[in-house]
Every structure is written in C-alpha cells, then in structure tokens.
Amino acid sequence: MSTDKLETRVAARPQRRRRERVWRGLTGSLAAGLAGLAVLVLAVGVVSALFGAPGPGPASLIAHPLAAIVALALQRVADRRSGRVAGVAGFAVFVDFVLLLVYFWWWP
User: Is this structure's pTM higher than 0.85?
Assistant: First the structure.
C-alpha cells in the first residue's frame, strides 16, 4: 500500500469524527431542551392549578414529559453507540423534537 492512500485515510477520519461530534451535540442539545421544556410546562401546570388560572391541558402535561423521556433515551443510545445506529437514534431525537413543537406550539 502506498503512503498516499494511508495519508488520505488518516486525513478523512478527523472530518468524519467532527461531524459525528457536531451531530451528537446538536441532538443532545435538543434532548436537553425538551427536558427543560417539560419541566417548564409541568411547573406552569402546577402554578395554574394552584391559582385557578387556565394553563396547559392534560394532553400537553402528558406529551411534553413523554417526549423528553423518549428523546433522552434515544440520545443515550446515540451517545453510546456508533455508526448507523447512532445516526438513526439522533435522527429520531430530531423527529421527536419537531413533532412536539409542531403539534403543541405551532398548531394550537
């Protein structure tokens, strides 16, 4: 094997690893954001119940924590595995995030 092929392989690895880190960082941020949003929605639900004010409905109080749990579990898989499994898990986190925002924040 020539040294040119070895240099090409070595040069391609850091770029690939960087993309994986960026993707995992993005999906991890989305999963953490969903967890924070779930805590916020639950807190607003408790405060609105205490003061008798209108607040998030039961569907929102169930869906936000459920979506956060699913996203955090999928992100754990994405962080601990590599290759296609990690990519699919990260993509599922992204889909979970988009579906929650579309159904509960953009379409009232």
Answer: no
